[in-house]
Amino acid sequence: MIATSILVAQAGLAHSQQTDDVAATDSTANQTTEIGISVSEIYDDNIFATRNSKEADFITLISPFLTAENRGEDATFRLDAGASLGWYESNETEDYRDYWGGMELRSAVGSALELFGGGRISRLHEDRSSPDDTLGPEPTEYDHGEAFLGAQLGAGGGRGARRP
């Protein structure tokens, strides 16, 4: 399979704000927001990933995203969401809409312990190059969810909540 990107355009906007939140925690809070979009045009000479009867097509991909993060003295909260939207020029049944969203929280407990947790949900599709999805009538879509929870103990672990 040969997929060549012939047009790529990216745009993004980042916003950072530092405020003194004296009423709540008497500490400095850092807030960051990133919003962006990527637009690509791809030519694929074998969209069904077959050895014979190869079919070529152009695919327009649009991928917007949003990331927001709030960092306090001992905690960081992060949200992210995005999508990958694909439109085929000649094979509309192959069009797809993948999207996802997630969150993560990290919090320092004392000077040597950090607790963290979060989750993510996604709606995705099987790529045609997957051996599980060749020659089906349309791409297979599926939902995916994950969650995590943990603790980190060690030197400086309590300050790890501030890392990017």
Can you offer a commentary on this structure?
The protein is an all-beta fold and 164 residues long. It contains no helices and 7 strands. It has strands at residues 3-21, 27-44, 57-71, 75-88, 96-109, 113-125, 141-153. β4 and β5 (96-109) form a beta hairpin. The two termini are 37 Å apart.
Search tags:
elongated, mainly beta, seven-stranded antiparallel sheet, 164 residues, disordered C terminus
How many domains? The number is 1
Encode the helix/strand succession as letters. Answer: EEEEEEE
Q: What is the gyration radius calculated from CA atoms?
A: 21 Å
**Overall pLDDT metric:** 81
Order of strands in the sheet with most strands: 1-2-3-4-5-6-7
What distance separates the N and C termini? 37 Å
Query: Shape from CA axes?
Result: elongated
Structure class: mainly beta
User: Which strand-content bin applies to the residues?
Assistant: over 45%
The biggest beta sheet reads: 7 strands, antiparallel
Count of strand segments = 7
Number of helix segments?
Answer: 0
Structural topology:
Layout: E1 3-21, E2 27-44, E3 57-71, E4 75-88, E5 96-109, E6 113-125, E7 141-153
Antiparallel strand pairs: 1-2, 2-3, 3-4, 4-5, 5-6, 6-7
Task: Provide a quick synopsis of the model.
The chain is an all-beta fold and 164 residues long. It has strands spanning 3-21, 27-44, 57-71, 75-88, 96-109, 113-125, 141-153. A seven-stranded antiparallel beta sheet has the order 1-2-3-4-5-6-7, with no helix packed on it.
